[in-house]
Amino acid sequence: MKRWWLTLLCAVIALPSWADNGAAEKRMLDIAGELRCLVCQNESIAASRADLAVDLRQQIREQIQVGKSDAEIRAYMVDRYGDFVLYRTPLKATTLLLWFGPMLLLAFGLLVLATTLRRRKSSVADALLSDDERKRAQALLAQTTDNGT
Amino acid sequence: MSRFVWPLVGFIVLVGFLAFGLTLKPSEVPSPFINKPAPSFTLPQLASPEDTFSPEAMKGKVWLLNVWASWCYACLEEHPVITALAKTHGVPIVGLNYKDIRGEAISWLERHGNGYVLSVSDTQGRVGIDYGVYGVPETFVIDKDGFIRYKHIGAVTDSAVRDTILPLIRELEQ
Amino acid sequence: MIAELGHFSLILTLFVALAQGCLALAGAARDNAVWIAFARPAARAQFLLIIFSFATLGWSFIVKDFSVAYVAQNSNSQLPLLYRIAAVWGGHEGSLLLWLLMQTGWAYAVSVFSKQLPDVMVARVLGVLGLVTAGFLLFVLLTSNPFERLVPAPIEGMDLNPLLQDIGLIFHPPLLYMGYVGFSVAFAFAIAALLAGQLDSTWARWSRPWATAAWLFLTLGIALGSWWAYYELGWGGWWFWDPVENSSFIPWLVGTALIHSLAVTEKRASFKNWTVLLAISTFSLSLLGAFLVRSGVLTSVHAFATDPRRGVFILMLFAVVVGSSLFLFALRAPKVGMGGRFELISRESLLLVNNVLLAVAAGAVILGTLYPLFIDALGLGKLSVGPPYFNAVFIPLMVPALLLMAVGPVANWKSAKISALMKHLHVPAVVALVVGVGAPFLLGRWSALVALGLALATWIATAVVKGIVDRMRATRTGLRAQPRSWLGMHLAHLGIAVFVAGVTLVMGYETEQDVRMTPGSTVSTGGYDLKFLGVNKAQGPNYVADIGDIELSRDGRVLRLLHPEKRSYISSEMPMTEAAIDANGLRHVYVALGEPLADSAWSVRVYYKPFVDWIWIGCILMALGGLLAISDRRYRLKRRERKAALVAAGATA
């Protein structure tokens, strides 16, 4: 019983320091992974080896330490570098088409598919092979034979 | 024709956008600070570290904040333009010496001339981050009330001074 | 002198290509046998001339002729021979020469492997290819001449971009371009068919192996690029949704739709307009990719140094090629017949739904890639569209496509019965459910996404295996007796299953740590211990490296030493990482050096990546499936047999 308490006590004491390093670092990387580095513009701040990215990672670490929330840290970056820094494009009036575009495309695609299938059903029903096509197939055959050696 | 024309129409619109895209500069990110108050800071002066400087000291003047460093090649390129702007047009320019070593910065100024009212040392680059600096050199135009009105990214050229920066300064001075 | 010969040869190729394009197309229109006969030898001549040009540029690199501007910009005297040769296509100008080599190479292949086709058709196809080649030659000669001289010649060259000094990057562009350019053959077949007004199942049969060949190269090219980014960029990602990656992925998606749609057009003469549009789109999107990468309208780590003239020229080329094709399509498509009838539930309908999903997915990727450009062009500011967006829109579109993948191959043409489908698919469904729900428990942590991904992968894989076994039983034949194109399809589908399993498992269970390590300290990941022994300096041919010594062990037993590197190339300020990877097919232990810290400590990135190899194994299986499909004997039918086949097709259609 006594040992059990001891173990628990150790765990409680050990927990904060572990969380400080591991969990905070993970949180930093999660935030930095969705921020775009402005120097090497196609890398995230988490990935970039640029000087500024190193500084900004340190900024994020410090802000995590003083208890800022993820949203506050992101706002800090947007205040300085604009929406450009956000890899997760914010949903606003100018990005409505971006976020809902694929859905509209899908709806449009399925609509076209449905109308095409319906139209086919009514028009293809009789003509299995149109005269035009049969003629072309024959012409092609004739051609192949003509060129044969 | 009818519905089979639509791919062509869509394509023409796309080409229009792409053609327009060619005239844009994708790597230049506009500053979110335009028409916002310049962030405040207090930094030691480069020449005399015991003295500090804050942007509030420039209240009532239209001035430039020029971010530079001795390690930055493009700064050397723009330096004559900056110096001329200060000396011939009398524009007060404060240098933000970004992530530099003090001794090297001072000798750089000795070698290439110093048109700055003064320079301040941002050794850690903290003020740079507060101003959203991502590529040195960068130049901010700040008005009498301490609002940022314009940001130039990269080396300032003669044509940028003539066509944009000077007219803006004259307008703000009215 | 050598470089001038190469330049001259390019100019000569331009004239041959123009002559071929005009004569062959005019000959086909007027039925002039002499002009038609000009097409094949002209195509072969172009290939030989470009090989010669390419060889002269290669020679200039080998002998370090820095008076050639391109050689001076992309190599120096310390660069090892292998990379000097690869540097031929390491920059913008040379990579265009590689593009031309591929372009004329494909045309050469068409001229050789088209004996069973009517000459007039071959003339049209080669004529279209000749005009495309001429367009690219003009681009090279007017804006991007790789043979330009520097006067006076510099004593030393700059260097090949260190990112490109890597074995993966030697083969990545050739494979990718083989794919991009390969789709020009399917494109040329489509344009030729539109010109002739002969859109029928023979056209589909002719272009199908070409489209599949291009697709398999593109698959390999993309996979190799992803593998390269994985170990070279040093932080374990394998896909970044970067604009350049997207511009190769978009043609892949549409090309995948194309090879499925071609199947329907060949077998059932349906969706002809749609197939033609896809054939035009696939190549057009390859051109769009070339524009995006080379014009500087989008920023990317992979983008070439840019010059506004090039952007304008390539946009014009793009506008002319695609605009005229779509114009021709608008003129001719309304006259095309409908083809064979089919029911709402049939293989045709399922493939059509697959096409819609793939096309919408491609549309979504295009939208995300170009959206920042649109917003900027409209003066609405700058924004970024990154991986979170693409994952959010792309994955939901792929789930139904993967579900249908198992259904399509067992559905009958014309009309499929639900009861028959159920009979085929109830086993895969049960296995998929069991694996999807159960496997995540065994792997340690249950999550809905892992369950979904594994269920889909199992669903496809089981359906593939059951499909093959059922057929062998029903026909009482062995595996080798099955048609190769049919086996190829199943192999490619199996590749998708392996790929999906790999992606799911690595995303679900990978771990990453960014740790500070001093000599003697250990870190454990996925049951393995990594002991940091220290970092040593080493000198490479044109770089200095910090090489880490890290001991990999499990349960106290030392397995091997890992040597992650961090290189500083003389020519570049950016350090390059070379990750060290211990792979066994089931997992990677991935170590990359970060920055040096105080007291001989280093920041080290350690990743445990379960099943990450499966991502690329899946891609290789897909490509092998494509290879198997194009080796099918029906594409090698002799003319007489083809005639019989045509008559038979006419009778059944």
Describe the structure.
Chain B: Residues 32-174 form the Thioredoxin domain. The complex is a heterotrimer of chains A (149), B (174) and C (653). Chain A is 70% helix and 0% strand. Chain A is built from five helices and no strands. The radius of gyration of chain A is 32 Å and the shape is elongated. The mean pLDDT of chain B is 88. Chain C is of the alpha+beta class. Chain C folds into four domains: 1-165, Four Helix Bundle (Hemerythrin (Met), subunit A) (Up-down Bundle); 167-333 and 347-409, no CATH class; 417-508 and 616-653, no CATH class; 511-611. Chain C has helices at residues 2-30, 33-62, 69-74, 81-86, 92-112, 119-143, 167-196, 201-232, 243-268, 272-295, 308-332, 347-377, 387-407, 418-442, 448-475, 484-509, 613-630, 639-652; strands at 511-517, 522-525, 528-539, 543-554, 557-562, 565-569, 576-578, 580-583, 587-596, 602-610. In chain C, a hairpin with a 5-residue loop joins β9 and β10. The longest helix of chain C is centred in the first third of the chain and has 32 residues, at 201-232. The N and C termini of chain C lie far apart (61 Å). The model of chain C has no long low-confidence stretch (mean pLDDT 88). At the A-C interface, α1, α4 and α5 of A face α12, α13, β1 and α18 of C.
